[in-house]
Amino acid sequence: MRKLFVFLFLATSLVGFAQIKFEPGYYVDNNGNRVEGLIKNIDWMNNPTSFLYKADENAKSENILLGDAQEFSILNKSKYERHKVNVDISSDKLQNMTSDSLPIYKEEMVFLKLLVDGKAKLYTYYNNQSKFFYQKEDKEIIPLVYKKYIKENSKVSKENGNIATNDSYKRQLWMDVSCNTDLKKRIKYLEYKIKPLTKYFQEYNNCEGDERQLFEKKKEGNNLHLSLRPQVSISTFDFDNSVSNESHNLGSKVGFGVGVELEYTLPFNNKKWSLIVEPTFKNVNFKEKGEVEIKMNYNSFELPFGVRYYFFINDKSRIFINASYQFNFASSTSIKFSKANTEAYKSLDVKSANNAVFGIGYKYDRFSVEYRVSTKRDVLKDYSYWDSSYGNISFILGYSFF
């Protein structure tokens, strides 16, 4: 418990050093006035209903609501416009699908994200599922129709092919957003996804001679990272027998390990969130001397799956915290009891036990350091009368290859 308190103290202390990132931008108020300043770049996954604005670095931030701004933009990165549009609220979840092929529209006032600017504009709205809209020459904004539904008189099952698709967006593009035969040929295979639709609208605008192009700046960098992570751990182990009142505390021992971490950075919220998995081999030796000598050479393979969150200080420097659920596999490990200069007369087999792990660290460019706390686990769970508590803290160095 004390180790967890140390972790929480470090987490709350270090997070205070992380900067809240406001970037140059503007918003247009309801009177049509363009207000320059700084906007907090959250890199929203769902379309926002408000945003934080401040006039300059030293000013106090204010929350600008949907009803107070016609549009806002983080310069060269993203732009949102307020529009009243028909949003399809049909579910794409299998258990909630209906046999109605037509969209279920609800008129809503929302911030639409502008993806492509030009003669034909492409917008997106995401709220648990992606919806796309288009506008030609400042006319009405129209939803691109795409809906999955269940064929009539069919059971709800993916396996027997009873899920149908209304892909009327292809007909909409054929009729309204196409300028040559080559583009029309591509529509048949055009997916209802952000990348292919963005590319299509760019090519349409090029065909129409409109120089305005992709509005949103492409995000740079690789989302997949591989790191080598050697570590030093301090482990504790104690166990007791509830019948014989036998109790042993093997104290704290230093062990060593090495792991390889695979990290996938999620493509939203300015890449602050990532998923991690880190296969690790670890070894630690315990020994208690006395009338009865007790030894345990603990070899383990650990496999934690978790989530990480970054607090950026600058482009190369950041603090992170992570939480994982760890699968543990003990390798031919046992606790051996022996008297002086004799063979072991008793042994207890050590089994695997899973647990949670929490870490806090600092990363600069390709290098990182992490302090990690593991919750305690019972490695003698197969014995009715034996209880044990194995725990450790680790100090981990890391080098990222990519």
Automatic annotation (TrEMBL):
* Name recorded for this polypeptide: Outer membrane protein beta-barrel domain-containing protein
Q: What positions does the domain Outer membrane protein beta-barrel occupy?
A: 222-373
Keyword annotations of the record: Signal
Residues spanning the signal sequence? 1-18
Q: Which domain of life is it from?
A: Bacteria
Q: Could you tell me which species this protein originates from?
A: Myroides odoratimimus CIP 101113
Pfam families in UniProt: OMP_b-brl_2
